[in-house]
Specification:
The protein is α+β, with helices and mostly antiparallel strands. It is 51% helix and 11% strand. The relative contact order is 0.11.
């Protein structure tokens, strides 16, 4: 795996992939200058048949295969004539498609690389926030109004700590009186942004407050806390591998571009300070 981390090795793979790609898509007897001969070989026929079967779930009939072949020839004739007229030049759609194909080659290379677990583990640790499970809280709450005074807050809090029934205290509300272990983002979606943050500092099993929500003031007893944690690689291996390959593909694409761009003299006007 060490050698796979060397940029030159990736560039070797990219070059090999490009070479193989053009060997596959270019007919054996066609040269760059040969615009006269159009050759449809057995491999082309097989590909047309396979594409038809993939779409229609059956092999094409003789007439259907002939129609597919005729359509392919027609497309090739029109493409070549369009190139002679220079219709491919300055076409943003064609340019974008060719650029995408170059990127696809790089993506294919990144997808084919199989990293060792130690590389994925390092990637996981370096991007731990992406995979960390959310913090969860379970709690009971008593709503005591939008703007209760200090005496009201202290009175209800004393009653709760003395063991009075929760249902007999506080003001009426449609908010849930309790929540089981729930992700903090879900709690905030119910009680308002930032409400869960005020709960994380409370001692478990003790009535405390006041805690401000989007609706008013609450007294809360936290019953259980499940802190955020990073799952082991074995549980999220596929997700980490997918993200690792995506990042690898992006890095390779940029590195490949820089190598290719170094072969050109690029001239652009000064853009700083320009006004319309």
């Amino acid at each position: 795996m060490r050698i796979l981390k060397e940029p030159l090795f990736h560039f070797f793979l990219i070059g090999a992939a490009i070479f193989i790609w053009f060997q596959i898509v270019a007919p054996e007897n066609e040269t760059v200058e040969d615009f006269v001969t159009i050759t449809i070989d057995e491999n082309d026929i097989a590909l047309l048949s396979d594409q038809f079967e993939a779409r229609w779930k059956r092999r094409p009939s003789g007439a259907e295969l002939q129609a597919l072949t005729d359509a392919t020839i027609r497309e090739e004739v029109l493409v070549r004539e369009a190139r002679k007229l220079g219709l491919d030049r300055g076409d943003s759609v064609i340019r974008s498609r060719l650029s995408q194909k170059m990127d696809f080659l790089t993506e294919a290379i990144a997808t084919s690389v199989v990293p060792e677990d130690e590389d994925l583990e390092a990637f996981l640790q370096n991007n731990s926030e992406r995979y960390a499970t959310p913090s969860k809280l379970a709690f009971i709450q008593v709503f005591i109004g939008e703007e209760p005074n200090k005496a009201e807050i202290e009175g209800v809090l004393a009653a709760l700590r003395a063991g009075d029934e929760v249902s007999d205290l506080g003001a009426s509300t449609l908010l849930p009186a309790s929540m089981p272990l729930t992700a903090t983002r879900v709690i905030d979606s119910v009680f308002g942004s930032g409400f869960s943050k005020g709960l994380t500092t409370l001692d478990k099993g003790q009535w405390a407050g006041p805690i401000q929500s989007g609706y008013g003031v609450h007294l809360v007893q936290v019953q259980d806390i499940e802190p955020s944690q990073i799952p082991p690689l074995s549980e999220i291996h596929d997700a980490v591998l997918r993200d690792w390959r995506r990042v690898m593909s992006e890095d390779l694409a940029q590195a490949q571009y820089e190598i290719l761009a170094a072969n050109y003299e690029i001239i652009v006007p000064a853009l700083s300070g320009q006004t319309k």
